[in-house]
Amino acid sequence: MEWPPTQGGVGLRRRTVLKGFGGLGLGVLLPWPALAQEAASGAPVAPAGPQPGIAMHGDLKYPPGFDHFDYVVPDAPKGGLIRLGNQGTYDSFNPYIIRGTPADGLGFTIETLMISADDEPFSEYGLLARTVETPPDRSWVVFRLNPDARWHDGTPVTSEDVVFTLDLLKTKGHPFYRHYYANIVENEALDRLTVRFGFMQGENRELPLICGQIPVLPKHWWESRDFDGAILEPPLGSGPYRIGAFEPGRFIEYERVPDYWGWGLNVMRGQFNFDRIRYEYFLDETVIREALKAGALDFRQENQAKAWALDYNVPAVREGRLIKEQIGHERPTGLQGFVMNTRRPLFQDRRVREALGYAFDFEWTNRNLFFSAYSRTRSYFSNSDLASRGLPEGRELEILEAYRDRVPEEVFTQPFEPPSTDGSGWPRENLRKAFALLKEAGWVVRDLRLVNEQTGEPFAFEILLSSPTFERIALPFVFNLRRLGMEPTVRTVDISQYINRVRSFDFDMIVAVWGQSDSPGNEQRDFWSSAAARQPGTRNYAGIQDPVVDELIDKLIAAPTRAELVARTRALDRVLLWGYYVIPQWHARFDRVIYWDKYDHPAASTQNGLDLNTWWFDRAKAERLRQGVQPGQES
Fold it and tell me: Of 190, 410, 447, 471, which is least surrounded by CB within 10 A?
């Protein structure tokens, strides 16, 4: 889908990433299902003793000793190079702090205690940890490390590394970690290979899985270095790749580690098949596309409908040497939209925020800019059963009743629908509704300018972007806002300045994306909580400070069953939507990829769509391509 260009949008990723920790160059992590059984009460009961995996709700899909994940080709060949283009720059190899712009792909070098499966809502299986143990109330978790786990210098990975990492991330890491790990209050190495985490009293059944996502760092390497700094010394890792050649801001290359300790694990079979992964950095997406067509890059995940439709009409595509492919997915698409910073007085009135939504003409935008490729987003959890729909009923209604006098009445009386138009480009009726709301909020038109009725202050604000690519979407929106007498401006800055301004909440409006998983939980605090609104570097871009939202997040985190999680998530979704913090944009149910015909991938796409980790280099195809033989013309 069209999204504001940021670091990390090239398709290749490490599978276990912190949920919601995406955008702005920070990567995204997703979880996996557990060995829990449903008791008569409906609450999951964890199995006794150490287990090879854990699910958030319900049973694990894969039994102990399974051979490989279903979505991989277990004997996929190893080898070859894949070259990826990335817009922007980088100046750091430390992705765990708020300073600097980290290079893409750093997650390939570091392992987590456990790894997610792409074909389950939220389950994890052993990676650095061989087993996991937690009691029925999930008040603590114990991990037993794999004795074969090694750092790239040959040093064993120990429980001391795990304890060191959590302490480091909570005290010096990115603010996200302080929210995500806030309820982990005990962190103890029981012996060289056993680590125990204890949790704050209360219902938070996700915490054992969150602990499984900890990216474990080498104590003996980091304790002699400044963790607060944006370093450019390749850090020591334990993953399937290490940093090879690099030039800050221009490229970085990762080399597969031949003696990586984890190649024999079932969770690693059929994955991370390239010998080298190279990221080339460019300042402009148009140049990236030209580099791909010229053969200087191998693969691109295309995020622009216009470019997909018009920019690849070249002989290589027509001849089948450069392949265009749409890969369907069933993953939650989260929400992308124009975000209003309610820390600014201009956007603190809900009526004003609602009024601005009437100026965005999705139907015209979709038809004229996107070739009608997208669906309008109507939920923070779009494309999933977690999205609210219709009027609240059943368990969702019961949850919301407790807040009836503290949320907008529309939560109970109207299904949420963003404003729609006839697509003509002249949303007259919508602008009339916007004028009425603005007048209620104390804004009037004088001398063709919208001004505050009391102070005479004009309605002026800035839309901050990180790339000229998104200007074509913002400018028609600005045109309609000016019809209302507002004075919006669009400012495009380089990626480093953009990241720093967003981290410090120094903006009026931005375009942001909140990715979601099938099992939302503790990461929602970083998105919407009052505490996150006051902490620079979090993803509460809108500055939401609502006690009802805080309480609903706590309820969501404590959900004892999948059914209860769905009801509580829908309740949160509905309250957020009627707060009008964001003008929702669009989403797609497919990934667009274009690549040279020297790669292959599993036949069936996973629930999560594109997973370049499972692709491989095909030497026969590469040789045919080198010789200029078109597909189907081999002798």
Answer: 447
